[in-house]
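ok trying this again, last paste got cut off
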Amino acid sequence: MITKNKTWFYLTPIIDYLYGKELSRKIGQYILKVGIGDSCLGDTYFKHHIFILIKNSYCLEWIREQDYYEYDYSITDLSSDEVVNYVVIIKLPETYATVIQMFTEGKFSKMFTHSEVEDIYKTSNQDVKDVLLLNIQGQSENFKKKLMKEFNIRRDEPEITWFPEKIEELDFINKKEEFVN
C-alpha cells in the first residue's frame, strides 16, 4: 500500500505531465512510496529528482530505457540478505529546480503559476490546487472565509486574535516524511 506523502500529492503529477502516464500505468500498483531523496544517499547529487520505492523489479528494464531514468538500486532485507524492494530515481528537467526548492522549503504556493497549476493538476483534488494557488489574488481570503464558515467563526469575535491577517501557506512539510528510506 502506498504511503501518500506531500511528494505524492505535489510532485508526482509533474511526472505524468512531463513524461506521460505510461510510467504510472505500468508501476502504479507496485509503488510503495515516493520522495525527494533517500537518507542513506544524502542530498548532494540527486537534487532535482523524484525517488520511487517499488515492491519488486517489475518493469525495471523498461524504466531504465526511458529518458527520465537516472538511477536505481535495490533495498535488501538485512535479516535474510534478500532483495525486497527497488528505488527508481526519476530526473526532472533543470527548469523544475525552483519547484523542488520551493517544495523542500514548504513554499507550495510559490511552486507554480496559475496556468501551470491548471495544466499539471487537472485531475488532482481541489485541496491540492487550493494549496498551490494560495498566492493568486483572492485565494487566501477565500480560504479564510471557507475556514470561518466551516468552524462557525464570526469576524467580530474578539477572541479570534490568533487568526492571521494573511495566510502564507496552507500546508507544511516534514522533510523526513519525504524520504523513501
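PB: full thing came through this time. DSSP finds eight helices and four strands in the chain.
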